[in-house]
């Protein structure tokens, strides 16, 4: 039986009626940009995160990061600490703001290693970009403490962590400012690109709004040099429908992860992700580590089981981020070693128990013989 890594068609069919009504309402209204769905989604998303932040919709998660960082007005050429194990957008947004990146290694939960983080802070460091990777919160409480002590700003990248919590509080509500992606494959995904910036700080969020809306809050008022980055009304309407299902979908992801943990517990050759007690993980990805990855991938392919690699090349090893003037050289041994071992297994609410069991059997056959 073929097993999909992600099944957006199945998800659509489950909510087809709601989606089609939402789309047709927007098309009938002909309000495609900046309409009522965008403001309603912003309010509902803020509420979903616990009500302490406000939301600004933007065109995608990369823009969200770029604009959020710009709003902080960090000193030019200062250094932002970024995890070595994340998607390229996190580091791109720093460089595109005229800042320098210093990579921090990951720990066994795949988020920033705190000892490495602390050791890399210098006079030039201005901010920490904490990425809540694979659906799990970074060690955000300690990161905030370190940042406070060293007078650093904290940006949270929550692209992979919609509804993830640390000690019961949603990620995105801890730092100075936070960003989300609604890329279709995310836990909360649009039917195209979409993103959001959230913050408790209304001054910062207003600055982001100005940047994203051509430099002003009113039409033709260009107070600063801005740009265009908007969440459109159609995507917002779709996201409003999907937001109503997100908690149930995340519950199912947690059940799938539990089945993986149970299924692999007697197989020492498979290194399972470490999950912090304080973290409510929403399992955007379920990433294991194995030594004989190529053989396992070949076997899974034969069995029709899809998989992914997140990420095949750790950012410090990518040409864009190695030995460049905007990257502070530093070693990240875990991220470099683990890029050869990580394997992302099918994960999502689309999986039925039998499929998860089939994945477990196939991986165990390939790894343990
Ligand atoms: C950790 C992380 N940050 C940022 C982004 C960028 O989001 P987008 O694709 O919406 O621009 C992604 C998307 O994959 C991501 O995984």
Automatic annotation (TrEMBL):
Family matches, as Gene3D superfamilies: Aspartate Aminotransferase, domain 1, Type I PLP-dependent aspartate aminotransferase-like (Major domain)
State whether keyword Kinase applies: no
MF terms per GO, please? Answer: pyridoxal phosphate binding; transaminase activity
Active site, per annotation: 186 (proton acceptor)
Keywords, alphabetical:
Pyridoxal phosphate
Residue positions, PTM N6-(pyridoxal phosphate)lysine: 186
Q: Which GO terms describe its biological process?
A: polysaccharide biosynthetic process
Q: Which family does it belong to?
A: Belongs to the DegT/DnrJ/EryC1 family.
Entry's PANTHER family?
Answer: 3-OXO-GLUCOSE-6-PHOSPHATE:GLUTAMATE AMINOTRANSFERASE, TRANSAMINASE
This one is known as Erythromycin biosynthesis sensory transduction protein eryC1
Q: Tell me the lineage of the source organism.
A: Bacteria, Pseudomonadati, Campylobacterota, Epsilonproteobacteria, Campylobacterales
């Amino acid at each position: 039986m073929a097993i999909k890594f992600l099944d957006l068609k199945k998800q659509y069919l489950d909510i087809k009626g709601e989606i089609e009504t939402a789309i047709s309402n927007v098309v009938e209204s002909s309000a495609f940009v900046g309409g009522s769905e965008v403001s309603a989604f912003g309010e509902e998303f803020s509420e979903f995160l616990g009500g302490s932040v406000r939301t600004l919709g933007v065109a995608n998660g990369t823009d969200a990061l770029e604009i959020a960082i710009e709003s902080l007005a960090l000193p030019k050429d200062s250094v932002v600490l970024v995890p070595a194990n994340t998607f390229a957008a996190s580091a791109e947004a720093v460089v595109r703001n005229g800042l320098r990146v210093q990579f921090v290694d990951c720990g066994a939960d795949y988020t920033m290693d705190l000892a490495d983080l602390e050791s890399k802070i210098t006079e030039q460091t201005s901010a920490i970009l904490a990425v809540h990777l694979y659906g799990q919160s970074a060690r955000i409480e300690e990161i905030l403490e370190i940042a406070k002590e060293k007078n650093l700003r904290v940006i949270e990248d929550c692209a992979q962590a919609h509804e993830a919590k640390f000690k019961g509080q949603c990620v995105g509500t801890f730092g100075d400012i936070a960003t989300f992606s609604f890329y279709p494959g995310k836990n909360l995904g649009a039917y195209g690109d979409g993103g959001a910036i959230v913050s408790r700080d209304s001054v910062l969020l207003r600055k982001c709004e100005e940047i994203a809306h051509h430099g002003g809050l009113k039409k033709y008022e260009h107070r600063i040099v801005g740009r265009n980055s908007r969440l459109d009304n159609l995507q917002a309407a779709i996201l409003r429908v999907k937001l109503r299902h997100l908690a149930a979908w995340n519950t199912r992801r947690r059940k799938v992860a539990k089945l993986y943990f149970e299924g692999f517990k007697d197989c020492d050759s498979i290194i399972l992700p470490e999950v912090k007690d304080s973290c409510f993980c929403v399992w955007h990805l379920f990433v294991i580590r194995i030594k004989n990855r190529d053989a396992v991938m070949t076997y899974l392919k034969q069995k029709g089981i899809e998989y992914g690699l997140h990420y095949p090349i750790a950012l410090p090893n990518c040409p864009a981020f190695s030995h460049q003037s905007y990257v502070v050289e530093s070693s990240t041994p875990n991220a470099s070693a683990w890029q050869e071992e990580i394997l992302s297994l099918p994960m999502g609410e689309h999986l039925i128990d039998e499929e998860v069991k089939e994945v477990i059997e196939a991986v165990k056959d390939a790894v343990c013989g």
